[in-house]
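FW: tagging you since you asked about this chain on Friday. Here's the raw sequence from the shared folder, copied in full. Didn't touch anything.
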Amino acid sequence: MKTKHWVIFITLGLIWSSSFLWVELALREVGPITLVAFRAFFGFLFGVAVVVTQRIPLPRTWKEWAPLIVLGLTNIAIPFFLISWGQKSIDSGVASILDATVPLFTILVAHFMLHDDKMTTPKVLGLLTGFAGVVILMSKDLGASASSLLGQLAVILACIFYAASSIIARVYTEGTSATMRGLGPLVSASAVMITSAFIFESPIKIPTLPITWVALLWMGILGSGLAFIMLFYLIHEIGPTRTTMVTYLFPLGGVTLGVIFLNEALTWQIITGAVLIISSLAIANWSPKQA
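HL: got it, structure written out here
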């Protein structure tokens, strides 16, 4: 990957790795559907501001809008809800390690659906090394929450949706601008989740705690609006498999936040997991030709 790809990749990982903490904080005051509705809506407002200020042309045909509408459901509304609902019964650290299974699903789907993202020995070794890292990193928390089976299954199902969405984006949004790839899906995601909140969590609870608003704004503006622009840019630049490896940074970021802000212990699992995760990125992107 080029330097600009690494910068975007790491920035995306930093933004999203904090989302599990913000989700847990927001769930103390609002339900999971309402949480996703606020998050998608704030992301949508950010998208409108970007489109207006940069005068980005909107898609003009149904062929361009259709995949964006589908991605709003498969890449935002459904997985965001599944993860938020799952975190009601599992720790944020457990959710972050389960989210790191996205590349494993992606590499399998991409191998059969894309001609230029096939499985290679470095990719497989990198994926397995990284997954071993996240398992070691959060092994204690994962074991402690083993009884919350439904919550864990919900997050895994969200990962399957993420993997499928990365392939959909690569195949069907080739002619769409990078900005609209990220912002277009927020239209359908906002509409669906706001409607769902009024149906399933009525009356809607308006947050009163400042920390809840900080969490919702962070997840909406940065975690949805800006992050999806970066995500779909990377998908088309470096491929779905390498892009979804950003999830391997989630447990590392989540644990770091816990050590700094929650006084959690720095254990051998954290150090070993960090080394394996960083190594996995280097292994998966190693090219014999370049060497």
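FW: The mean pLDDT is 85.
HL: agreed, and The longest helix spans residues 210-238.
FW: great, closing this out.
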